[in-house]
Amino acid sequence: MTTSKIEAGSCFDISFFRSREYQFASKFAASAILARNMSHNIGSHVTPRTRLEDLRGRIWEFFLPKADDPKYWGESEWRIGFDVLKELKDTLDEYEQRKAEFIAEFSTDPLISAREAWFYREVIFPFLCNTALMDTLAANEGFHYRSADRPGIVIRCFREQPDGEIVELRPWFVPERLPSQKVQEIRWSMAENVQQPPVVPYGLRTAEHPSLIHIWSIDGAEHDVRVSLPGPVGEMAFYSILENLIRNAAKHGGQDDNKQGGGDQHARILEIHIVIRDTAGKATADEHYDMDILENLSSPDAVDTINGYINDAIVDDAGQVRNKAWGLAEMGLCANLLVDQAPGASQETPELRVDACPWERFRPEDSERKFLRYSLRLKKAWTAVFFGFDEVNEETRQSLRNPGFRFEGEATLFDPNREDGAIPPAVRFAVLDAGLIDSHANERVGAILNRLPFRIIVTGSITDTGKAQWLKKKGIACTKNLPPFGQGADDGKFAGELTRWLWREWLGYLGGKTGGEGVPLAVDAYFMQEENRKPTLDWRNAADRFNANEAAADRPIPARVGVWARDPGDGRVYSIAGKPPDAKGERRIIIDRHGDFAEKSNYEPSMKDRLIVIDKVSGDFDALYNASFPEPRDDDPWELPFELAEAGLVRILLLDERIAQRAGEKFQETGAGKEGFKRAVTGSKTATPLNWHIAERAGVYVATHLGISTKGQKSGTGPNNDKTLDLAGGSWLAPREAGSQGLDRPHLEMQFAAHDNNCSLRITAHRPGVGPQNNDELPRAMEDIDLVIIHQGILDRVREKFPGTNERLLSTLEECCWVIVESGRGIPPEVQKSSSKFLPFSLIERAFRGGRVAKLGLTRTVMAATRNKQS
């Protein structure tokens, strides 16, 4: 009689299986809690108050009491209502979409990746700007906007400096047509009234000027910090904490019932303070930020009860989800997630803790009263991680950590026993010592690339010529220039110089990769404003400093930043910053509002240039129009021109049915009918611009077809293609059917041939226009593409039609370019099992909203993508 392995080690095995059982039960319970709370917070409180008739009523109440007076408004009533309604609804819809994707990712494979974000600018501020949410989340309890400039919920954010000084980050809004002197007066007035909470107006329009687009700025933005978020939509973990805190305070908080508004229940204000600081006195002090969140309504007597609910397990011994305090349960789960603790992971103490403390900033006149304080942590993001570089001394390493530079050894990359998360996931650049790469085989190096961002730089001399070619094929920049660590020098100064070095080496590589090695690159920005208006004025000042300091002769990328303005008399567009354009000797990245630059600046179109069209609908509008600029005294470089240069250089091939369907539609934008603009984007002043043209001019090629061949000859030779998938139409076609759909519409087909052990890819492309030169800049081979984004649904269609071919397609793509799989249903099982990088669909869709192409935002998103788990 034999004894089974399970019987021989039954105690160990049972313990192990029980642990795994608890983890799975916790994961499913956590997913149920998040889904239920979304239904409650959003479905029960927000959605019933944000239907079209509800939002229209709020707009009428706040902005249209004098709609019959044309002198007061300056434009028609419906235009104001439509613009504000669009701002409210689009922002709320995107919030709900990303929250649903966050729950889907949480339910499938949380923490598979991470992303970096500026804490205030990209996490807190967008939450505040979702004014339809802020108006309704606690409206049942009376916390809503009383007027456009009087919110019922106020959230203030502070950065506590290492020396103990507390600085508030304060947003402010002004109409874009306001003279710069008037804007400065408003800013001075705000600076004199720092005790008053900053106001985010309803619909992002002030009541005095509802017909005008408003620009915003953030005082104290230089004190913002970059944080690591758990996943591509990881900000939703923090938003879940805020949502439930607001709901709990509004529903259960009663200590201020008679302290505000003269006892009027509906005049109370829920005030929340967020304080973020560097962690002190812990072994991981430079890995995290500490955060306190305080609110002014709840009784401090509830501390023990709240902590008890946070500490309670979300499942009982029988594996059943607990049946109460689900809001606090979600807050605890999300606090854990913010430090990379998945549901069911063992830990001695929860990340979220609650106590009572005085906070004089709430009530200077009543500083002895105590308020609830929620404490948690956020992970730091990194500018760059350097692997190897043993010659850099410890003093230099430590001095560069605080500015965002981290050093890791060989084992962090190549130790087969390393734990998931050992490599910092939220990082912009990975820099590898050439000696470290030389000592490992290509297969070993290739196995770790998905754990790093796409921005990889290898420094030093690679002795193996074959390996150097392999690295180049993998999209890795190689340079003999060593990083300027400045050992023993001022860390602040050299941190800035190190950032500049990273961008110059990376952009120099991209420039050569895209066929422009040694060709200067220029960035031209035009916002359809007179030169004394903001933000044009701010851009000009920043460009003058950049051109003087960054764009010297030995630093060719970007060679210059140009800023353009509109003449108020004849409407002519002219340069106000930067050297005159060199039409023959440079490539240009042009930011053009409403196509006015292409129409009125004497621009001579060149297909080698990139044209990024912006208006209020564009996802890039806020990032460019309300850009942050470093203080003139700071050593920090202005990185936006570098990011724009990267956005212009990176060539993206997109395979997504939904984007393909919209690509063939007419471009619906104010400037679409201008002859100069039509010529710039289509090659003809009489052609009608399509969304496809706008994407192509920004360097995004939207595939219309995918050809699959599994026969014995290469793809692309007519009858040998088995089938061609019409991405817009959704049907499989015979190759001749696909080719006969006409030359009067754009056609871009990626063709994949899988024959025995040999796989190949090629591209055929055509766009309607005049003359063969119209197609000169279209991709002809995969070498003309840097990054492929492919929807998981397309891979599913390929698998159903040609079993097994989807995996070969994906692996073949990964051999020749960067690849991202996107989906709106969480992490697909195929991606969980593979080494592919993943992004949720909302992040891709956002870049193509309204037919626009937010190339800057898209590039920022994809280039920082990492994979935080081993395959």
Short description:
The protein is an alpha/beta fold and 871 residues long. The chain is built from 30 helices and 29 strands. It folds into four domains: 18-378, no CATH class; 382-512, 3-Layer(aba) Sandwich (Rossmann fold); 519-649; 652-863, no CATH class.
* Count of separate structural domains: 4
The helicity comes to: 25-40%
For the largest beta-sheet, the strand count, sense and barrel status come to:
9 strands, mixed
Report how far the terminal alpha carbons are from each other: 40 Å
Query: How many strand segments?
Result: 29
Structural class category:
alpha/beta
Q: What does the average pLDDT come to?
A: 85
**Rough outline:** globular
Q: Indicate the radius of gyration in whole angstroms.
A: 28 Å
SS strand fraction:
15-25%
Q: Low-confidence parts lasting 5 or more residues at pLDDT below 50?
A: 1-12, 70-74, 257-263, 713-719
Compute the number of helices. Answer: 30
Chart the SSEs and their pairings.
Elements: H1 5-8, H2 10-46, H3 52-63, H4 70-73, H5 77-108, E1 115-118, H6 119-129, H7 131-136, E2 153-160, E3 166-175, H8 180-192, E4 214-219, E5 226-229, H9 235-252, E6 270-278, E7 288-295, H10 303-311, H11 326-337, E8 353-358, E9 370-380, E10 382-387, H12 394-401, E11 405-408, H13 410-414, E12 427-433, H14 434-438, H15 442-446, E13 456-459, H16 465-473, E14 477-479, H17 491-513, E15 521-526, H18 536-549, E16 560-566, E17 573-577, E18 587-593, H19 596-600, E19 610-614, H20 621-625, H21 640-649, E20 652-655, H22 657-663, H23 675-682, H24 691-697, E21 700-702, E22 705-709, E23 723-726, E24 732-733, H25 735-739, E25 747-755, E26 758-766, E27 787-791, H26 792-801, H27 805-816, E28 818-823, H28 829-833, E29 837-840, H29 841-845, H30 855-863
